[in-house]
Amino acid sequence: MRLADGTVASVWEKWLAFSPDPLYLSLYAKWDPGVVQRRHGHHSPHVLFVLEGDMTCDGRRCPAGTHIELPCGAAFGPFVAGPRGALLFEVMMGDPRGWGDDPAAFERALAEQGAEALPDPPIELPGWLEDLRHRWVPEPPA
């Protein structure tokens, strides 16, 4: 995303373990200061732990030491990283691909930051898992 001052803020992930059987993903994520994440869920239970920095989740502050557990099928967010960013450890115990249910909440969170969304960067998923991120982008009018 592009922040109000023109800088680009991203989420940087290092996948520590990504297994097809049983399907799970564990990762270390660095969120740049001010980055906004969509309200979303995953097709699996998902836990995250804030190691450093802070963020808000749906307006609620989550400082270092916060543990969030998301049951399969539930959604959370939008998220906004604090002024120092955030460092997270996350585990998805099943299909880690996400879905969103409230694009307007993402747009509001971006507007509150004076930010704009940028296209998702290329990603290298394992060959056994299809990239479904295109579903986040609204279909162009016919």
Fold and architecture overview:
With 142 residues, the protein is mainly beta. The chain has a domain at 12-95: Sandwich (Jelly Rolls). 8% of the residues lie in helices and 46% in strands. It is built from 1 helix and 10 strands; from the N terminus they run ββββββββββα. The chain has one helix spanning 103-113; strands at residues 11-20, 23-31, 36-37, 40-43, 46-57, 60-63, 67-70, 75-76, 79-92, 95-99. The strands form 2 sheets. Strands 1, 2, 3, 5, 6, 7 and 9 form a 7-stranded antiparallel β-sheet that branches. Strands 8-4-10 form a 3-stranded antiparallel β-sheet, with no helix packed on it. The two termini are 27 Å apart. The relative contact order is 0.25. Mean pLDDT is 90; it is low at 137-142.
Largest sheet: 7 strands, antiparallel
The first-level CATH class of the domain at 12-95 is given as Mainly Beta
Termini Cα gap: 27 Å
Percent strand: over 45%
Which whole number gives the mean pLDDT? 90
- Proportion of residues in helical segments: under 10%
Structural class: mainly beta
Radius of gyration based on Cα positions: 15 Å
Q: Can you name the CATH architecture of the domain at 12-95?
A: Sandwich
Helix segment tally: 1
How many runs of DSSP E, i.e. beta strands?
Answer: 10
CATH superfamily of the domain at 12-95: Jelly Rolls
Return the string of H and E elements: EEEEEEEEEEH
Shape: globular
